[in-house]
Amino acid sequence: MSDPFVIGGRSYNSRLLIGTGKYRDFDETRRAVDASGAEIVTVAIRRTNIGQNAGEPSLLDALPPSKYTYLPNTAGCFTADDAVRTLRLARELLDGHELVKLEVLGDPKSLYPDMVETLKAAEILVQEGFKVMVYCSDDPILAKRLEEIGCVAVMPLASLIGSGMGILNPWNLQLILENAKVPVIVDAGVGTASDAAIAMELGCDGVLMNTAVAAAKNPVLMAQAMKKAVEAGRDAWLAGRMPKKLYAAAPSSPSGGIIGKAA
């Protein structure tokens, strides 16, 4: 791949990571994920059956692990202890799976991350051999600290989980991007395709979303739109946009050789 997306030592083609919750059923989940082109899918261990509930429909049947990289997450955890316990269970259910998404929430209303508990959990999980992708605030100092602990990716919010408000603080994201030596993936707050494109145009390595697709009137079509937006945003960042100017000081076409103009 000419522009590989590397997470935890493995390369991926798609820079769109997609959640598997909030759909009407596993069939809609499968169709939306397929339309998105995503290769990494997140799963909330506390809310989705991946084998812990015998006899019930399992996500593993709709999205086989042979085709997708599972990213078990700690959605619904409010303490470091709960998050660590949840990911230990995920590793057991997924036969020693190491790549995980850590999120420790501060309160049930805003779902804003509790960074004290997040740092605590990250240290434990890294020491236990997990490859930790971590949901965090857009504080550039804390993002760098998570990288130093050993997280394989930092995932600052664009805005609150499920809000659809888009990127509210691009300046902090740019500070995180300037200092990071691991992938930076926007997580939470994306509402529509333009939000995803903007994140990629800023230089983010990827975008993770769930509600923006699952809560759309047509989730499958929205997933397709997000795929195109992430690809377009990445291409625009690689191409290097023109400088912003208050007005055009020079014409877009050369003036030399214009008929009737004196030399």
Tell me about this structure:
With 263 residues, the chain is an alpha/beta fold. The chain has helices at residues 26-36, 59-62, 80-93, 115-127, 140-149, 170-179, 193-201, 211-214, 219-239, and strands at 5-7, 10-12, 16-19, 40-44, 69-73, 99-102, 131-136, 153-156, 185-187, 206-209. The N and C termini lie far apart (50 Å). The chain contains 9 helices and 10 strands. A 5-stranded parallel β-sheet has the order 5-4-3-10-9. A 3-stranded parallel β-sheet has the order 6-7-8, with helices on one face. A two-stranded antiparallel ribbon has the order 1-2.
N- to C-terminal separation? 50 Å
Q: In order across it, which strands form the biggest sheet?
A: 5-4-3-10-9
Strand content: 15-25%
Separate helix tally? 9
Radius of gyration: 20 Å
Secondary-structure content class = alpha/beta
> How many beta-strand segments?
10
Shape: globular
Unreliable segments (pLDDT under 50, ≥5 consecutive)? none
- How much helical structure, as a percent, in the residues? 25-40%
What is the string of helix and strand elements? EEEHEHEHEHEHEHEHEHH
Mean pLDDT: 90
Q: What can be said about the biggest beta sheet?
A: 5 strands, parallel
Question: Topology, pairings included?
Answer:
Blueprint: E1 5-7, E2 10-12, E3 16-19, H1 26-36, E4 40-44, H2 59-62, E5 69-73, H3 80-93, E6 99-102, H4 115-127, E7 131-136, H5 140-149, E8 153-156, H6 170-179, E9 185-187, H7 193-201, E10 206-209, H8 211-214, H9 219-239
Parallel strand pairs: 3-4, 3-10, 4-5, 6-7, 7-8, 9-10
Antiparallel strand pairs: 1-2
Helix pairs in contact: 1-9, 3-4, 4-5, 5-6, 7-9
